[in-house]
Amino acid sequence: MTVLPDQSLLVARAAELVEAAKRAGADAADAFAVRRVGLSVDVRHGAVDESTRSESDDVSLRVFIGRRHASVSTNTIAPADELAMRAIAMARVAPEDPYAGLAPQDRLARSWPDLDLLDRSIPDAAALTERARAAEAAALAVPGVTKSGGASAGWSLTGAVIATSHGFQGSYLLSRTGVSVTAIAGEGTAMERDYDSDSKVYGADLRAADEIGRSAAERAVRRLRPSRMPTGRTTVVFDPRVAASLLGHFAGAINGAAITRKTSFLKNALGTAVFAPAIRIVDDPHRLRGLASRPFDGEGVATEALDLVEGGVLQQWLLDSATARELGLATNGRGSGGGGSPHATNLAILPGSVSPRDLIASIGDGLYVNELIGHGVNGVTGDYSRGAGGYRIVGGELVEPVSEITIAGNLRDMFARLVAADDLEYRYAVNAPTLAIEGMTIAGT
User: What pLDDT digit, counting tens, does each position of 167-185 carry?
Assistant: First the structure.
């Protein structure tokens, strides 16, 4: 039986590290401690392929001496004074950083909401095995499916603690449970595979395992006997599960670290129209039971929902204290523990007013993409080129599967022509509805 971790031990550990750093000569310090517990089961053709349980503690200590700073991390219970002395020695020889320092004290969280991030119903290995087997059995029962690519079910719990030398101390627990399955359809060289999955904070919120299995199988069967598309320019419609990747590229482009390094194609775009006028993008760390929700950021700064894009206009960068100082702005609570780069939380393109069916019907001929391959995106220029698979659109209908296609464009141009459907679902940390982009280049036959 898994027992919920005692956060008081992590809290005491983080506070001990901060005090040790001050004794060793640090002007300021913060500590970030994370405890992770996980259990997963992999099943293939009804038999348990692997069952894994993991537990780990990771601690990072960041110290400041004037404008010099250094961080040390460990996954062992090393003595606090030893870690502090090591960090101090590194900081003394580090170059000065005019933007280094703890978060401004007036931005620290003094209280925070209960975001309902902890499911106290903890599944055991038998329950996870049952979920994985149910998903796989449902997939294998779909006509046309010939093999299982495997199914898995898992549960994890993450406990995070932050302590700073200027008075912040906070902790929270986040649980997560999920199911995934891969189905293989066809025979020999004509086989196709696809998958489906779900992940939630609460196990009770998961889609039924057999529903996930059937969905994966039906996706795989629909991909059989794909054809090619001719090279040219056309409208591309992105299925929600791949549309979210476009939002991920946007988040990388507005990351404060990329802006300060001038390595983003949006580096001069703040306050300008980046998307079509109907597009609104929100980052909300306070979504109840959100997969990326958090009551405060990795520096102890109070968090709130941000309109990153409103009316198509870029409103905000993702900022922590250091990047905000360098840009002459204020942190907006997107800092990472241990001095990592700022990052988004629960990120979403809000839905438009047209259904996916009507959106597809309106474009006539085009390409519906539900698989992307490779990582051909240049964050500096915005150039975009990805392998893709999906369905050909003819006369406003999906008519046949297609594969071995490359879609290309420039993200700045793509964002400006983006149209959102009304089918947004909050299934992941980054979510998007069906999206359509006119005028993309297709490389096919």
Answer: 999 999 999 999 999 999 9
